[in-house]
């Protein structure tokens, strides 16, 4: 017999099967020996009160044979001689699009500016040691995209974009831990993500798809309302019948190429700010009411404030994580966060960002649709100048920033390239400073202890979401001018984060295959 039960347990009881099996047997009304298998369906922590609880939904197999580890609902087939679809960019959107194209019986041809995932790590190491930046291979560019050496949080703020369980299953089928299928806040970690990406690539290649590396797309040949050729930096040209554009929001050169090619884009609102880092112990103590034990994971937080009609909010919180240099060009400094699967570093970091509104972009109006990009780039270059050496980041104690004081010595931080004490409030735009300052005061009212001299802010968290939209038809997902161009993922301005970009990639792949099939019939 198979039955489903709900348990509310202490963190200790919920920690491992050995601990919760007796409670599960009691609830199912059987002896523990009769339980052949327990599968977690959902798991969430409720730390609102001092008596912290873990809610577990379990499927109980009573004297039943073991089920397969993950039920695969994907049907990858050989597509060697099938019609080709070019995908530019091998991030979550491009890879999910490729897998969906295979399921639907077409052949994906991926063109990627960076290196295979295994080879990215040496460039990332150079960045961490502040020994230079490779503009085609870094935290944002290369196989797996920006999602690979990231935190690997697999949840979205928005539920409207689609069903994320299919994407979680896709990752689980390619080597991610099965826990992502039931955790309330699923997370893979940057130590495990590269293997998942490698496995996805192997599926694509074994079915007959192609992946071309070190191929930065630098040109399009446009005939009428179609792209007919995709051209790369070394002069190679790829015949194009249909193109999925999934280059992410850090590929400024792609937006510039679209602008040069007179392919329509729109400016879009986004958010920018700083990354704040606290000792993890402090966040654990705030969130777990001083009761953190080995049976609870590193605590996180999620805060949103509204200040003078602007949102100020935490972004991409990485408990037990590390702040990383995620610029994509020299003489720019950008910070972001990641963590490994164990989330066991002594630091907790998150973006603390401010919504950018129309007025903020007025000084950049001459850049048209790329106004937000220009503001972003200006701040990143200012950060470089204020730290003055490669990927070192300008930094200030959080309390000094809020109280407009100069920081003398900085606390320890996970940011490996190094920090330089800087009075961020003297050069960040006023609309960011004022909102962040007030935001911090209000967050302190909710998270007592957040505003501490032991916390440090680093600049600049500028790549939260795309400042540009590549407009597409809502139903067909075709670009509004170029009928065989399907913009998707974070760079299109219609998605943000790993899961939503992958969902978007799949959905665009479906429309692209449908369009191509109709074209071939016509
Ligand atoms: C350090 C870090 C941590 C993050 N942590 C998380 C997290 O925990 N959870 C989460 O949901 N999101 C996280 N994100 C954001 C997430 O990674 C992105 O939202 C997601 O990767 C977007 O997917 P995408 O496929 O649309 O674009 P991208 O991942 O940006 O992929 C775009 C791909 O296109 C390639 N490319 C770009 N230009 C060209 C060109 N001209 N020619 C050929 N190829 C090109 C790039 O090399 C890249 O591989 C993080 C990002 C960073 C940088």
Relevant terms:
Alpha-Beta Plaits; FAD/NAD(P)-binding domain; 3 domains; alpha+beta; 22 strands; seven-stranded mixed beta sheet; 27% helix; five-stranded parallel beta sheet; 522 residues; binds flavin-adenine dinucleotide
Describe this structure in words.
By secondary structure, this protein is an alpha+beta fold. The protein has three domains: 2-62, Alpha-Beta Plaits; 84-267 and 470-521, 3-Layer(bba) Sandwich (FAD/NAD(P)-binding domain), CATH 3.50.50.60; 271-461, no CATH class. It is built from twelve helices and 22 strands. The protein has helices at residues 11-14, 17-28, 92-103, 117-128, 165-173, 193-206, 252-260, 280-287, 371-387, 398-402, 430-446, 498-521, and strands spanning 2-9, 35-46, 53-62, 84-88, 107-111, 210-212, 217-223, 226-232, 237-239, 243-245, 266-267, 271-279, 304-307, 310-318, 322-325, 335-338, 347-355, 393-397, 419-421, 456-461, 468-469, 485-487. The strands form six sheets. Strands 13-14-17-12-20-18-19 form a seven-stranded mixed sheet. Strands 6-5-4-10-22 form a five-stranded parallel sheet, covered by helices on one side. Helix 3 (92-103) packs parallel to helix 6 and helix 3 (92-103) crosses helix 12. It starts with a strand and ends with a helix. Flavin-adenine dinucleotide (FAD) binds next to helix 3, helix 7, strand 16 and helix 12. Flavin-adenine dinucleotide binds next to helix 3, helix 7, strand 16 and helix 12.
